[in-house]
Amino acid sequence: METMAYVVLPGLQVKDFNAESNQYVVGIPAMTGFTGFGHGIERELNRLGWALQVEGVAVMLHDLRLHEGHPKCPAAMLGAKDFINPPIIEEIKGDMRVTLVLRLVGNYDDEALSQKLADSFASVETRQALYNWIHANPCCGGSCHDLKALRLLVATETEDDDLLLKALRRLQQHDKGFWVVPRDDLLSERQAEGQDVLDALLDTQRRMKQADGRWRRDAWIGDEKRWLVPLAIGYQAIEAPQPRQGVRKAAPHIYAEPLTGLGELVYASHWLWRPDFVMDSVFWVHRHDAQQQTYFVTTLQAEA
Questions:
Q1: Residue-level pLDDT at 177
Q2: Please, which domain of life does this record's source organism belong to (predicted)?
Q3: What angle do CA 286, 288, 289 make, to 5 degrees?
Q4: Which of 84, 216, 246, 295 suits 199 as a labelling partner, its CA being 20 to 30 A distant?
Q5: How many angstroms separate the CA atoms of 179 and 226, rounded?
Q6: Is residue 155 part of a domain?
Q7: By the 8 A CB rule, do 22 and 32 touch?
Q8: Would you say residue 34 lies in a domain?
């Protein structure tokens, strides 16, 4: 499979997305939400007759705001008679503006597919069908709005990344953003030095009050000068797949626990103009480790 095309969704506004990625992480949506959205677009392209697969979804965040939420006690009830709080756990929601880039792969030796891509992939019909699908389907549990000019780029054998890089540089000049990339390598380094991996993950977020009254991060994090964030990246199976009643299409069912990893927000301009920048460092893909029974996402470069 070779890279044959890209779909670029610049400045997509997602409202009321699920900000509670799992019971441990609140903020950036689960990365599986973005890759799942890409899989939905792949299925729509297949329905339109395109024999292409999505091999990677790049995520560039422009803005993210969490909702303040609502008090359990309505204002009209304040000062009134006693009442019992209903057993309701409020969902944590948020709004974000994000640019998504989907890498499409296919059989490059298929001359008919190559010619069809060159002739009609960027057609008005394909573009409108994707517009309709995006606005009718959720991304990370939120509704999609205000999508700017959707871009459909056909890659060539010699310029598979060059066209995309030029398009992203033009976008970045008008709309700054941050790539979301995995940094589990930092946790592995701490683990190799004897630190518990959970403690290392907590070090990236907590602040310790110093003798001078200031709040500072752990020394190894402070020296890194990085914007590190926890990310929900998949699931760890706690049993073998097995049939269960009520499961859709009789697919094997499995119980699992969430996987939490470490990510970094990298200023896109710092990478897009670097001569050694490779697109594989930002494309998230689905992966399965049969030995560890994990279902997770990572970038193409991180797994290399």
A1: 95
A2: Bacteria
A3: 145
A4: 295
A5: 13
A6: yes
A7: no
A8: yes
Instruction: Find the radius of gyration of the CA atoms of the chain.
Output: 22
Q: Which of 39, 10, 32 is nearest to 256 (CA)?
A: 32
Q: DSSP string of 149-203?
A: --EEEE--SS-TTHHHHHHHHHHHHHS--EEEEE-HHHHHHHHHTT--HHHHHHH
Residue with tokens 């959970």: 198
In a domain, residue 145? The reply is yes
Question: Are the CB atoms for 164 and 5 separated by under 8 Å?
Answer: no
Domain that holds residue 105: 2-67+88-178
- Higher per-residue pLDDT: 295 or 160: 295
Report the C-alpha gap between 220 and 218 in whole angstroms: 6
Residue 71 has pLDDT above 60, yes or no: no
Number of domains in the chain: 1
Residue 261 clears pLDDT 70, i.e. is over it:
yes
